[in-house]
Amino acid sequence: MNEITKKRTKAFLIDLAISTAVTAGAEFILRKKIKNEAFHALVTPTVAMWSLEYAQLRRNGQTIGYKQLGLILENENGGLPTSRQILKRMAYRDTISTFAYLGNPKGFDKEQGAIMPHDHYSATKVKEVETVQ
């Protein structure tokens, strides 16, 4: 596994942990109003994760996990990704990209892990940057 791919995986796990904490808080509040268990199992976690990721990537191209591990998401011109690119990337990653991995796990990442299928689809790229501590 490439170094950037390892960092991306660790960053995703950090972001997932944060999203899980936010989801738990949201569920605590929403359980009184919404009694449907399917909503709490499917909708709440997805909305929480996508909202956090979108807001962070739109603001500065980094999620908390990306920032901790020295990664940044850029568009193909080297600038911050657009709203459309971020949404396309998240949707593709959480749906079709899974099948791409199952079909060809060895060819899943390109350019030493900087471009995965969801990055290719949304015309984005992850690159390493200096971390400020």
Task: Throw out a few tags for this protein.
133 residues, two-stranded antiparallel ribbon, mainly alpha
Task: Provide a compact summary of the structure.
With 133 residues, the protein is mostly helical. 63% of the residues lie in helices and 8% in strands. The longest helix has 28 residues, at 3-30.
Main sheet overview: 2 strands, antiparallel
Number of separate helices: 6
The separation of the N and C termini measures: 26 Å
Secondary structure class reads mainly alpha
Q: Give the strand content.
A: 5-15%
Number of strands: 2
Mean pLDDT: 90
Low confidence ranges? none
Radius of gyration (CA) equals 16 Å
Helical content band: 55-70%
Main sheet strand line-up? 1-2
Pattern of helices and strands: HHHEHHHE
Form type: globular
What can you see in these coordinates?
The protein has 6 helices and 2 strands, in the order αααβαααβ. Helix content is 63%, strand content 8%. By secondary structure, it is mainly alpha-helical. The mean pLDDT is 90. α1 (3-30) packs across α2 and α2 (37-60) packs across α4. A two-stranded antiparallel ribbon has the order 1-2. It has helices at 3-30, 37-60, 64-69, 83-94, 96-103, 117-122; strands at residues 71-75, 124-128. The two termini are 26 Å apart.
